[in-house]
Design a protein that fits this description.
Elements (H helix, E strand, L loop, with lengths): L2 H17 L19 H17 L3 H20 L11 H15 L4 H27 L11 E6 L4 E6 L3 E3 L16 E7 L10 E5 L1 H4 L9 H19 L1
Helix pairs in contact: 1-4, 2-3, 2-5, 3-4, 4-5
């Protein structure tokens, strides 16, 4: 094991001790299997879960997912699979370590914003590794057919998406409150794996112009959809 691996091992051993002192939030429930077709697919799934845990205000859960992700990278290194990936996996290993350190300091908005940036960067890097792994895989099956679930418990959102897509979360994300429904913001964006520099394939968010039409802060998707359709029809009517 080289010096970089030793340093990371010491870091994660320290973080495991810190993890025991973190406040424990209710464990998020995810209706999807832990293991998929290969180790890189598992790493991607763990990264996605870490992002969801962060948004669900469960820091300890996010850290546990990333620690398991690091174990996946160590396994890849031991069996020689990491050497087959162009560029290797060291960059992702260090990024996981930095992200975990930020999560242990997750105590104010400024730190949360930086943590969000690191989670987004980690998500893109892991998706890139997964794409390279699929290209160099001798198997006919890839993760393109694997559908998993994005779960945001505070907002009551469940969305199925392909494992190879990239999730991006915004720094303006916050837990639901009366104020969050009065200001437009994006909850999560989903990108195609080869379109990270373009527009998201779709995104979930709050439209404050529609939200203000409700007298109460909580409303159903059906009610929101009805208001959205009414708004579009009024816009078309006034244009004509």
């Amino acid at each position: 094991m080289n010096n970089s691996r030793v340093s990371l091992a010491i870091l994660f051993a320290t973080i495991l001790c810190v993890l025991q002192t973190l406040p424990q939030s209710p464990r998020p429930s995810y209706a999807q299997p832990l293991y998929v077709n290969n180790n890189l697919g598992t790493l991607k799934l763990l990264t996605d879960r870490a992002i969801q845990g962060f948004q669900n205000n469960s820091t300890a859960y996010s850290i546990s997912q990333l620690l398991t992700g690091y174990d996946v990278l160590v396994k890849l290194d031991k069996i020689g699979e990491a050497d087959k990936i162009p560029g290797g996996t060291n960059g992702v290993s260090f990024l996981i370590g930095d992200t975990i350190k930020l999560l242990t300091l997750n105590s104010n908005p400024a730190v949360r914003n930086v943590t969000t940036s690191y989670l987004n960067a980690l998500e893109e890097q892991v998706t890139h590794l997964l794409s390279l792994g699929n290209l160099h895989s001798k198997s006919n099956t890839t993760e393109n057919e694997t559908i998993i679930e994005y779960v945001n418990r505070p907002y009551g959102i469940r969305v199925n998406y392909p494992l190879t897509w990239i999730i991006r979360i915004d720094s303006n994300y916050s837990l639901p409150s009366v104020m969050t429904y009065l200001h437009s913001h994006v909850i999560a964006s989903f990108y195609l794996p080869n379109a990270t520099d373009g527009l998201p394939f779709f995104y979930l968010g709050v439209n404050s112009n529609l939200s203000k039409q409700f007298k109460q802060p909580h409303f159903t998707i059906e009610q929101y959809l009805k208001k959205s359709i009414e708004s579009i029809m009024k816009s078309l009517f006034y244009k004509n």
